[in-house]
Amino acid sequence: MSHPILFIDRDGTLIEEPDDQQVDAIxxxxxxxxxxxxxxxLRDAGYRFVMVTNQDGLGRDGYPQRAFDEVQRxxxxxxxxxxxxxxxxxxxxxxxxEGCSCRKPGIGLVAHRLIRLDWDRARSAVVGDxxxxxxxxxxxxxxxxxxxxxxxxxxxxxxLLDSPRTARITRKTKETSIEVAVNLDPSGExxxxxxxxxxxxxxMLEQIGRHGGIDLRIQVEGxxxxxxxxxxxxxxIALGAALRSAIGDKRGIGRFGFYxxxxxxxxxxxxxxxxxxxxxxxxxxxxxxxxxxxxxxxxHFFRSVAEGLQANLHIIIDGENNHHLVEVAFKGFxxxxxxxxxRSDPSGAIPSTKGVL
Length: 357
Prior knowledge:
α1 runs parallel beside α5 (about 155-160), α6 runs parallel beside α9 and α7 (about 230-245) packs parallel to α8 (about 295-310). The strands form four sheets. Strands 3-2-1-4-5 form a five-stranded parallel beta sheet, covered by helices on one side. By secondary structure, the chain is of the alpha/beta class.
């Protein structure tokens, strides 16, 4: 599995930059506030670190190599003592007027990384304190963050690890055309915008969004002139796939979930975001339809969700009122999903002894 990389500047980003803009003595050494907790959190979330630094005139009379090395040993020693290790330290010793290809924002120092396929560009970023660092990020085609008065290391870690988990899936077949958009981390009340052509099915999908605590948008055009089978089946597959995509690598999530009673009906729902698809649905309906939804399609819908989500899903329902039986299954799944996708581990660890899900 590819890993994300943080390409990190040194002076002004890891250690405070003095007025003369040259950290060439131990007496000038100060760590930037919050850098160690942020890097530890990012490390635990799977990030690797590469230092990329311009050191103007390094090795010349005004900035001898030994002065740089002394500070560098102290910096790396402190970080290593806390479990923070750099895969590489890349240094450009040239001044801005020398026209080298390695000075940031040029990509000379990182060119060998750009041709490799073993890192996750979508999650990687450059972190620095100057415009040249942001320009390097642009030249590399990855995100950039500028540490300073308006952005702290804590906020960088939050932006990289706690950003809303979203996904959009389009599924088109000869029977259906479906678009599903989900946001697992809405900023306010969950939003549901559902239009499948089946009123009662729309209402049930709204229950998943509301009780799952997620924004859910679903638009479906299906062959309802035949029956509701393809519309419900393909919606389930697309919804499951969208949820799987939004969850991402599953770091820090609860993984499991359970729930729920409703009047005369009750549902026991067990969900495991295991990466393996399995579905069990136990329950008896005494009517063929509730509204315009075929009750035989309820179990099939959840089997389709489990397939798209690549999850183990067990639902057992009991009760008398068929409307309540259907609704408690959808509500129960929503509440179960809420627990399973919630970020509950601040370390960002994978919730498995295998280290992968």
